[in-house]
Amino acid sequence: MAEEKRRFREDAKTSEYLDIENYSLIKELGEGNFGKVVLASFKIKNQLTAIKIIEKQREEDFEYVRREASVLQIASRCPFLCRAMATFQTKSLILLALEYVNGGTLENIIEDRGRLSNKQVLFYASELVVGIQFLHENGIVHRDLKPENILVDEQGHVKIGDFGLVCTGMYGANTQCGYYGTPGYTAPQVLLEEPYDAGADWWSFGVILYEMATNRLPFSPKGNLRQQVESVINREPEYPDSLSTKLRDLIKQLLKKKANQRLGVNGNIRDHPFFSTVDWSNVEKRTLKPPIKPSHESATGFNRKYISFPKEDPSETRMLKGFDYVDPSWLE
Ligand code: AMP
Prior knowledge:
Layout: H1 2-17, E1 23-31, E2 36-42, E3 47-55, H2 59-74, E4 84-89, E5 93-99, H3 106-113, H4 118-137, E6 150-152, E7 158-160, H5 188-191, H6 199-214, H7 225-234, H8 245-254, H9 280-284, E8 325-326, H10 328-331
Helix pairs in contact: 4-6, 6-8
Bound molecules: adenosine monophosphate (AMP).
């Protein structure tokens, strides 16, 4: 009887998180591939969350959203990935309530600071390696790694976000085809629409390291697809003298044009000399001290504007099966 009561209380709590009426929207945080991200409050507990609001328009997008939701759920097992607090839907909206990460993005840090020091690059690179390896161990290739998708929490630790373009089930020799990603960050195999695997993410990681250390991109993102292919396939990036020998070598190993020679797929990146001073168990425990403390807005300081959820379309009947989820930590 006591067990039944407990389960009843838990179910009631869970359904509160799955009810759009219990969220009030505060301000827009950004816009992604599939919808707006809005800061919201879960009114019952006054908890902040970043809600991704996706209108059920194109049925082709449902599969991407399902994949994004599944990764957001697995993400609760790795501290360097942004996770879902809840995923649910109404008649015409799909809602991903994400943990609110309020220190901006790595893109903001590079914009504010310009070139980062070797020590700063080492910190971000180490946390990113743990996050990327966790994704790959779970058969997930991100396909859109770039500073804009790397959020920073209020202490300064990284959280990889935006799983809207992931591919899943990438175990063993499985490969994918198809162009995804962002100009400037995309691996040659992806640009050429050749089969690719997790090596595509390690290429993007190499680009991110180069950008952190130089405040430039190694390959031009300009022009059409053919011009980008030309730049990525035929050119070698310029490595300024300010780069340390170890970091330069690491980037070169990651920007190998042949995917099977690329570090990350060919050898464990943790063993590269650039990381020789890193105690990986400390990185995994999230005990490294962030070198930059982000300046962030306080949750109470927002200028609350009235924003509302998009209007429901009563004629919409498409529901995603088995989509409702609440992270157990929210129920505590
Ligand atoms: P996305 O579609 O995931 O790329 O999100 C679009 C933008 O919304 C990002 O560039 C961030 O500025 C913001 N954003 C996304 N997720 C979060 C989050 N969990 N916390 C705070 N801001 C976020």
